[in-house]
Amino acid sequence: MRMIQTKKGALVALGLTTLIAAALASGGSAVARAPRGLVADMKNTSGATVGKVRFIPTDDGKVLVRATAAGLTPGFHGFHVHTTGQCDPNAQDTSGASVPFFTAGGHYNPATTIHGAHAGDLPPLLVAADGTGVLRFKTDRFRNRDLMDADGSAVIMHAGPDNLAHVPATTATGDERYHSHSETAADYTFGPDALTKATGDAGARFACGVIQRVNS
Asked: What pTM did the predictor assign?
């Protein structure tokens, strides 16, 4: 009965105190935390938004990557951090051929390794029958500050699956068994070609997003 007779202002203060105590007891915070980390808004060659990728620093020193996508073909899609923060859908390669998002450069690969071990290699994104995909994982291959150098970085989603340049064990003669190029080609050699070693045969660059600091 005494509580009912207390002034309204005191009741409000008591209620707020109770909410704060409950939040802290559950390991939460009564004050909304400001967004952290980096984000890439993924757009396809037509400029339509098809997903979002967030890079969130964690207390254990790793980076939590959260990706969502919509409007993609079902199945696995290659998914990588690239070296340059430029996403031009009308870009051309060095020969003048049209290669959307060529301006994003190659995979982020400061250690100069073969694909599969690039710092920017991310797990392939699995897209469901309705065209949507969700991916969440941690990586210790880079920190957020590494992605925000002078020319920035970008995320690329590819049209096809990524084999991560997996090359089966060598044969008795020392040859690598996997190859991704035609055996009838004039330059055919047994083993993986340069494209496999660089990109895992993930195909065309379907979508691109410049990595930026979270503002909201």
From this structure: 0.77
Residue with token string 């967030």: 54
Tell me the three state secondary structure of residue 5.
helix
Convert the pLDDT of each residue in 38-82 to its tens digit. 999 999 999 999 999 999 999 999 999 999 999 999 999 999 999
Beta bridge partners of 134: 68
Amino acid identity of 168?
Answer: P
Q: Which amino acid would we find at residue 99? A: V
Looking at residue 144, its amino acid is N
Quick: pLDDT tens for 78-133. 999 999 999 999 999 999 999 999 999 999 999 999 889 999 999 999 999 999 99
Decide yes or no: CATH 2.60.40.200 for domain 38-165+200-213: yes
Radius of gyration of the chain (CA): 24
8 Å CB contact between 126 and 73: no
Name the residue type at position 75: G
> E-strand spans in 58-151?
63-69, 75-77, 79-82, 125-127, 133-139
Strand partners, 154: 82, 210
Q: What angle do CA 66, 163, 120 make, to 5 degrees?
A: 45
